[in-house]
């Protein structure tokens, strides 16, 4: 019967247009959404430029960061040298080229942000996942352990972050490593709480119950069911933390706890701190590093927000 | 003239970078005073979007409205937001599915009711509070003066829905739109709420637009029923006509797929195969064709029109309507012959009792294109019913 | 002997309060003494409204919640007293299908991984290739395309997801499947597909079902025996047809009269028994018969003081009501005026005055 095959063909043709993609995991779908997001694009570009500067900065910088124009140091001239042909951003209070110092400083700043966030993320995630696993599947004893761990974390959270960082810095002495550890420690409770909270939510979900009813071992449920679904807020937080870490480092430097070896290894936060003494007479000295910090932080924040939306499309309006 | 007259309403969502989605595609119906009109359909049929459009609650951005919705001579779709805000509450009120999220959780119920009275009826202080208590009493909330001081979370689901209805009727609106008002409730509570709605309609002449997926609720409550599928009304009729002779294959299939409490046990269900995702554009043909047991090539060429094959006032959007329904009661001309035809072919071909002769053997052929859900076997239910009666 | 026998099962959840160390301030009596038995190859339907404890009871069979008291005998073993690890291996034979088809599937696992997880946990199914073969086989049984293997739950429609949930239970070749609201999250036309599938599978694989649902019509359609739950206990149990033909407990009567039937003729003729008020809190259940606070037939004696036991009234029909016989005989009067006239026309007649606006 030809009409029969005709109509089946016609139907197949009409429904074919509606076919959807297949075999795309949630991560891949999130990546697709991320690519389509303008916010992510802007953020990614900013970060890319920052990364590039961090890598090539020390090589392309026109002068060494410590090189001084001795005749033009502030105290000798009572006037700042602004932007000019040989020094694009002018000279700082010690007669050094600000542009070169900014370029070299990009690497330090990035290193500081990444390492401190990594410290916070790894330790925080370790504590958080332990606590979360105890709370969701550990029974009565587990819940008690979780409760004790979380109260400790709460105490850490209750301390002002700067105070915490200052104490760590005071104990370990003044160095770049100290700054990284101090900022990392401040981030630990944030990551721990976040991961544990996400795990608690996932632990109460139907598919975890389903996994139980299948007879899957608890350890495996934590690893294959709960963890992968709890990670996205942590990833987003890590991106956002990179921005705050840079700013916190600036604050620590501001308090005089930053990198002591700032002559050879300038860092944006330290540069900003040094500039504050001359804010009246040489505001531009503060503006350059401040702008750089703001733009970089913005880049990470934009990417973080875009990732948050991409990973959880329900949040979008 | 009807109180509300919706004419060729269409709603299109124009997303950023995505294909336009036409959620509602030319839906027309009238609602009179004291009348209950039902919009029935499954998720994604456009019934809830219709109610939001009528209430002016759809966002302005990214939504294109077409057609008219005349209420008392005013087109609801073109009213300004201010004019619409005045309409809401005073003339039109809406009852939502989830009473908990429709009530403000941090304000006592009483304050939420008195607020409406103050805004729309200009009542003040004690008078408003007394009226609020009266309202709660009228919707069957015991001890209303105490309840007024309670917060939404302190009330049970049924009580919350009653409170919501009290708020909706606070200004004696002439028209109520209820969007799945009982779906979140238990059956015994559902029965209470439906009773309350019936009372409102019968005692105060309120017009009610009832949006639901539950054909059982429709059978007991609605005067006029519109069955929606993929944004279009596929069948619209009085409730007795619709249930006596569901003529569109979708409406027919829906009724056949519901387990009935009063049906003898062991009577098989006749599910509609596939899902709402198996559809084609209305512009290309009948959106239901991919799930239909007796579609033809004609179904796949252009939008089917609303016709009245089984009697005046019983509109069906189908080129191959099911002319022998489960029971033939209406006076449609072809009905009698069709019954005979079905009876004659039944012993030989029990699988296809209700299909017009030429559309016969296609049901199995279709299974090839349907990949996901199992193709159902058609079943000799029509005969059983006839024998029983 | 029945395949699955519950004897006086109680599940009480402690209500806790406290800053660091919690103390128990009360209990929620979610399930409070339920005994029932499910015969091999049959379907036991458990029906009741939200908060009646039916879901908790279903989960207690699999020990997904802690059983406070009572025994769950499955094939001669008391699951309630089994050590955790042994219970885990027993779960292969008792599987569960969940209400929310999307929520009960891990969104980050593809179908193959979801379906093979259980086999891996119990060390069955042989090699990876053998397992895949078996999964393909099961997918065909539940009516899913073979190319579903590499896809993820969010790429399927609601009905297909529920089929995945059923397939996940089936790969372990269980004896009993507990279906917790298997169709209530699905569209009407899809519900019928899943119900039919469950029935076909029962027939071809000889499965035993415990179906938990709030929809009496669905339960009546697929169950051989129906138990009606109210506030943590069974109030009535009977073969499906007997229960429909003659509901004996006042709650069952009210429940049945409240279920809408998609037929105006039936709807118009029907008398509705409207229950007043709401379900009491299971943390503070009423003394005596749990239902007496809402019962239209509640009497002054017994009802408020003594809790009625589930008694056989003949033909496997069990009722927990002091006055079941009297109500059936019509010798006790309804005390609450809670019956509404059937049709809207009648209702309009009843209206004496329309409140002035």
Structure, described:
With 317 residues, chain A is mostly helical. In chain A, helix 2 packs across helix 12 and helix 5 packs antiparallel against helix 6. Chain A is built from twelve helices and no strands. Chain A is 75% helix and 0% strand. The mean pLDDT of chain A is 83. Chain B contains 14 helices and twelve strands. In chain B, the strands form two sheets. Chain B has an eight-stranded mixed beta sheet with strand order 6-7-8-3-9-10-12-11, sandwiched between helices. Chain B has a four-stranded antiparallel beta sheet with strand order 2-1-4-5, covered by helices on one side. By secondary structure, chain C is of the alpha/beta class. Chains in contact: A-B, A-C, B-C.
Number of helices of chain B: 14
Average residue-wise pLDDT of chain C? 88
Quaternary organization = heterotrimer
Instruction: Kindly estimate the percentage of residues of chain C that lie in beta strands according to DSSP.
Output: 15-25%
The separation of the N and C termini of chain C measures 66 Å
Percent helix range of chain C:
25-40%
Rg of chain B? 23 Å
What fraction, in percent, of the residue positions of chain B are helical? 25-40%
Which outline of chain B best applies? Answer: globular
Region (Disordered) (chain B): 342-389
Family (chain B): Belongs to the ABC transporter superfamily.
Keywords (chain B): ATP-binding, Cell membrane, Membrane, Nucleotide-binding, Transport
Subcellular location (chain B): Cell membrane
Q: Layout of helices and strands, plus pairs?
A:
The complex is a heterotrimer of chains A (317), B (389) and C (357).
Chain A: H1 2-16, H2 26-36, H3 38-60, H4 74-77, H5 98-137, H6 139-158, H7 161-172, H8 176-203, H9 206-214, H10 218-254, H11 268-276, H12 283-311
Helix pairs in contact in A: 2-12, 3-5, 3-12, 5-6, 5-8, 5-10, 6-8, 7-8, 8-10, 9-10, 10-11, 10-12, 11-12
Chain B: E1 4-13, E2 21-31, E3 36-40, H1 47-54, E4 63-71, E5 74-75, H2 81-90, E6 92-95, H3 99-102, H4 109-121, H5 125-138, H6 144-147, H7 157-168, E7 175-179, H8 187-204, E8 207-212, H9 215-221, E9 224-229, E10 232-238, H10 239-244, H11 249-257, E11 306-307, E12 315-317, H12 333-345, H13 362-365, H14 381-388
Helix pairs in contact in B: 4-5, 5-7
Chain C: E1 4-17, E2 23-38, E3 43-47, H1 54-61, E4 69-74, E5 77-78, H2 84-90, E6 94-97, H3 111-122, H4 128-141, H5 158-170, E7 176-180, H6 188-205, E8 208-213, H7 216-222, E9 225-230, E10 233-239, H8 240-245, H9 250-258, H10 264-269, E11 272-273, E12 311-312, E13 318-319, H11 324-329, E14 339-340, H12 344-350
Parallel strand pairs in C: 3-8, 3-9, 6-7, 7-8
Antiparallel strand pairs in C: 1-2, 1-4, 4-5, 9-10, 10-13, 11-14, 12-13
Helix pairs in contact in C: 3-5, 4-5, 5-6
